[in-house]
Specification:
single chain; 4 helices; 14-stranded antiparallel β-sheet; mainly beta; 916 residues
């Protein structure tokens, strides 16, 4: 059953107009008329004639991704109506923008028995068995949109149809971070071929500016192209699969993958529209693990072109004086005149006094007097009269004019009201009628009240032949007491009401973060402190310089960039981009420095995403990164024989995606033994979140991790420069499948296989370091995952000055424009990473500084692009799975494609080709 309510006690947002559609009483889930039976067969249309049709329905899941799990926000789902403005690109915190019913549009989903039941806010992310949907292929809620009351014409012989629907629905991805709506759907077919179109609108955001949120101009788009065949189209119905496999996506920012069984695309103009919504790559094959979920699902169409005569009510009370309306359709374009209803004995049922009835071109209505009919079922035949001539109309055995007269409802008989499955925002109610109570009723009206005041809109619940009806009541407030009053109706006769009290449940409490030994430092609201030397020469004691890797200071697909900050970052309260007051470039002994020409300067909030050329770093600018480094002074160096230990005091923070996920390293320690092997360890802390629960934000327990393993370090000089181990290092930690906070098995990626193509940059940070990143959301950014960012992940050289007069030197740097993308991939090997050709040079030590020999060699990513071209691989294509990490509840995309910089215009991880 479905109800025709919007939300109870909650104002709805802006809706695309649906003129002429009023609140309807929908009888059960199957009612949506799967506009089938079109019989749209290619045929000789020379003598065919179009037949007017009404009550046409359409049901469609669109594809598995529309009901699938999301890497943030819980899941993707459908909502009835055009959802209003959320005010920003953010997960919907409650059901204020959600509806399962709006006018002639409903959203349903299958239950465990395969029956379509109304979707609810609480069930939107559950599959038919009640389990939470995941990101893997085949996992979907299978929610479907159902549009009723389509009108138009159909010619069965010629296979032509023209049907339109009023009403809108909304497609929500990532729990609400990006969504769009479509209304005024229209189906046009000629010889079984044609299109389903609609007017699409929605909202766009800026990947570099999380505060930006703008309404998109409505535009007409093609939702489906259809090439029906006789096997699909029958006289009794049709299930038509829109074109997808083998379809060209057109000009797209992320190259279309054109191999495998599921490569293809939705219509080109539809895909182009989604460049603004952030869902573009979700509507064509992009080489990601979610490609099988993108294939267009069959749409079910149903209308009946046989003549029909439909009474307004299945039954009326004895002595009913208001008359019963009967509507006629599909009688034939040549049929016009006055409709007549005749009983089996030939007697004519009279019209309601002072009314007339008329049929024109095969359709019409009239109201008949049933006050004198006795109890029981009455079947009538139909004829159309013109003057003295009558034309019998064959309604067929399935469509007689049947009017059943039953006893009136008992004046004191009340319906049974059973409330079940009480959730925080909804409950299920089952309404029954006693066998000796007269009637039974044709339906019920349900009204909620709080403290005697009506809440929301009256719900209409249809009843079956026994008087039973069931519905889910959505849109409630948690921990609130309601009274539900149910009034039975037999046609328009109201019976005695029954009232039931209930209290909604509580919303799940967010997970309490584990206690830690120290509270996080709250960032100051003042400007950063500038050290006396301005980032140049070191103060007394050993000085540490390191930028970890290029990815740590590069462009990001949301939030502007990844960056380094001084000090231990405080609790932002949720996974969101930072503001200026939360950033520091200096804190005690720690300063963030970056090249400015040939020298270095202290970074700032304004320059944290700017490279030395004054240009913002971007995933679309190959090789671009800010070259920022952590500088920690005042280190205490001690030697014990041939062993060296240096202890620094201070913290630095590594923030990805503008701060959506971040972690802190405190008090790093360098230890090198006599053989030149060493480590840099630190106390790690940070924050984790759940990809399935946007409200979840937890402080991670502190632990000691290895920031770097070192090999072949020469400690004989005053200045040590070495590249920490990465190339050739295998990740042997616990996160080979995943391990993201709140995640599922498909969330993260294992280390990619080593190949000839990736051998120059294949490797990993220390395993315990990577294990820690499972919880921060940056898991796959610290090892080779076969992603487009792999060439940015290797460690860059670090420098330790054991004296206080070392000045770093900025090396060469370039960030060339992005190359032209190709859109096919004929090989099945390792994908080429998003590397510049040639790769930018990392910051170099001063001339004459001793460099450790025998250590890990900094990889040269230059040959990557050439190798990929020579091998048939094309830059920008990605197959490695993305990891959405707890900390940001964000895509630790280990390899997003640089070409997806349009991302939602933000695409906070919205499929950048890896899983989407």
């Amino acid at each position: 059953m479905t109800s025709a309510t919007q939300h109870l006690g909650t104002p709805r947002g802006h809706r695309l107009p649906a003129p002429g559609i009023g609140t309807r009483i929908l009888a059960g889930i199957g009612i949506m008329g799967l506009l089938t039976g079109v019989g749209l067969l290619a045929a000789d249309s020379a003598e065919a004639a179009s037949t007017p049709v009404t009550g046409v329905g359409l049901s469609w899941t669109m594809n598995d991704e529309v009901g699938g799990g999301a890497y943030f926000g819980g899941c993707n789902f459908l909502s009835a109506g055009a959802s209003g403005d959320n005010g920003s690109s953010a997960v919907w915190a409650d059901d204020r923008l959600y509806s399962a019913s709006d006018g002639s549009v409903t959203i349903t989903k299958p239950d465990a028995a395969g029956n379509q039941v109304p979707a609810t806010w609480d069930s939107r992310c559950l599959d038919a068995g009640g389990s939470r949907v995941g990101t893997g292929a085949g996992s979907t809620s299978a929610n479907q949109v159902n549009l009723a009351d389509g009108t138009g014409t159909v010619d069965l012989e010629a296979g032509t149809a023209s049907v339109s629907w009023d009403g809108a629905f909304t497609v929500v991805f990532y729990g609400g971070m990006t969504y769009w709506s479509v209304d005024d759907l229209r189906l046009d077919l000629t010889n079984g071929r044609g299109t389903l179109t609609g007017t699409a609108g929605g909202y766009g955001a800026d990947m570099d500016d999380p505060t930006k949120w703008q309404r998109l101009d409505p535009q007409r788009v093609t939702l489906a192209t259809i090439d029906a065949t006789p096997a699909e189209l029958t006289a009794s119905g049709a299930t038509i699969t829109p074109d997808y496999r083998g379809v060209d996506a057109g000009t797209v920012s992320t190259p279309q993958a054109r191999t495998g069984d599921d490569w293809g695309a939705w219509p080109k103009d539809f895909v182009a529209f989604h460049e603004a919504t952030g869902q573009s790559s979700y509507w064509y094959s992009s080489g990601g693990i979610a490609d099988p979920k993108k294939v267009a699902a069959p749409l079910e169409l149903r209308f009946d072109t046989s003549p029909t005569a439909t009474p307004a009510y299945e039954r009326v009370p004895l002595g009913y004086t208001e008359g019963i309306e009967v509507r006629f359709s599909n009688l034939g374009e040549g049929i016009s005149g006055e409709p007549l209803l005749r009983a089996a004995d030939g007697s004519e049922l009279q019209l309601q006094p002072d009314t007339t009835a008329q049929i024109t071109a095969g359709a019409g209505l009239g109201t008949w007097n049933v006050a004198d009919l006795p109890e029981g079922a009455h079947v009538f035949t139909l004829a159309v009269r013109n003057g003295a001539a009558e034309t019998p109309i064959d309604l067929g055995g399935a469509h007689p004019v049947r009017i059943t007269v039953v006893p009136p409802l008992g004046t004191t008989t009340q319906p049974g009201v059973t409330v079940s499955d009480i959730q925080a925002t909804s409950f299920t109610t089952t309404l029954t009628w006693p066998a000796d109570g007269g009637g039974p009723p044709t339906g019920y009206q349900l009204q909620l009240t709080q403290g005697g005041t009506a809440v929301g809109t009256i719900l209409h619940v249809p009843a079956d032949a026994t008087g039973q009806g069931t519905t889910i009541v959505p849109g409630l407030t948690a921990d609130t007491e309601y009274a539900v009053t149910v009034t039975p109706y037999l046609a328009t006769q109201a019976g005695a009401s029954a009232t039931q009290l209930l209290s909604t449940g509580s919303r799940p409490e967010p997970t309490v973060p584990p206690e830690t030994t120290t509270a996080p430092t709250t960032p100051p609201s003042t400007e950063p402190t500038t050290p006396p030397d301005g980032g140049g020469e070191s103060a007394d004691g050993a000085t540490f310089y390191w930028g970890l890797n290029k990815e740590a200071t590069s462009g990001a697909y949301a939030g502007g960039c990844n960056f380094l900050a001084a000090g231990e970052a405080g609790d932002t309260g949720s996974s969101r981009a930072w503001n200026a007051s939360e950033y520091r470039s200096a804190d005690g002994n720690v300063t963030i420095i970056k090249p400015n020409g040939d020298g270095f300067e202290q970074a700032s909030w304004a320059t944290k995403c700017i490279d030395r050329t004054g240009t913002a770093v971007s995933t679309a600018r190959l090789g671009s990164h800010t070259e920022s480094q952590v500088r920690i002074t005042g280190g205490e160096a001690t030697r014990s024989g041939s062993e060296l230990t240096v202890q620094w005091r201070g913290s630095f923070t590594v923030a990805f995606y503008g701060g959506l996920t971040y972690w802190t390293a405190t008090d790093p320690v360098l230890k090198v033994d006599g053989s030149g092997k060493g480590t840099i360890t630190a106390t790690a802390s940070g924050y984790g979140a759940s990809m399935t629960d946007a409200s979840k934000w937890m402080q991670l327990a502190e632990r000691t991790i290895t920031l770097a393993n070192l090999t072949g370090v020469d400690t004989s000089g005053d200045v040590i420069t070495t590249t920490p181990d990465y190339v050739g290092v295998s990740y042997g930690g616990t996160g080979q499948s995943q391990g993201v906070v709140g995640g599922g098995d498909a969330t993260a990626t294992a280390q990619a296989a080593r190949t000839a193509l990736n051998s120059s940059y294949w490797g990993a940070f220390p395993s315990d370091f990577v294990d820690f990143q499972k919880e921060t959301g940056q898991f796959s950014y610290w090892f080779t995952s076969n992603g487009a960012r792999d060439a940015y992940k290797p460690t860059i050289p670090l420098t330790v000055s054991l004296v206080g007069d070392h000045t770093p030197t900025a090396g060469e740097y370039s960030a060339p424009a992005a190359p032209t993308l190709t859109q096919n991939n004929t090989s099945g090997g390792t994908r080429a990473p998003n590397a510049a050709a040639p790769a930018p040079t990392t910051t170099a030590p001063a001339a004459g500084v001793a460099t450790a020999g025998g250590g890990a060699v900094q990889p040269a990513a230059g040959p990557v692009a050439t190798a990929s071209e020579a091998s048939g691989l094309h830059i920008g294509e990605i197959t490695a799975p993305m990891v959405l990490g707890g900390g940001a509840g964000m895509l630790a995309i280990a390899g997003l494609n640089w070409s997806i910089s349009l991302l939602v215009r933000r695409r906070l991880g919205l499929d950048p080709n890896l899983f989407g």
